[in-house]
Amino acid sequence: MSIPANLKYTSDHEWIRVEGQEAFIGITDYAQSELGEIIYVEVETVGETLNEGEVFGTVEAVKTVSEMFLPVDGEVLAYNDELTDKPELVNEDPYGKGWIVKISVSNPAQVDALLSADAYAKLLG
Fold this sequence. Notes:
The chain is of the alpha+beta class.
């Protein structure tokens, strides 16, 4: 299972990659493997400003639907449109082409409080 060191993680299995004042968010390799084959990704929060921990969308797998939670405060700027036709990208490349939303980070200090790759690996056991 892949846990890239350049990302930060939540205990709810989201990852965040900060690039300046913006960040990309998705679900971890662990999360996608637990969910199984992802058949639909829904994000209806583009243009909204959400707080850390608020639901920004859902991921639907063959047997379940799972909510996704924003790791930090921010405005949802964009949804990865490629997932509309190819939701399986979340399974195939969760940290690359399978990113889910791009946000504008409101409070960069919140990023520092998230889990490092080592801490996330320990959380998984």
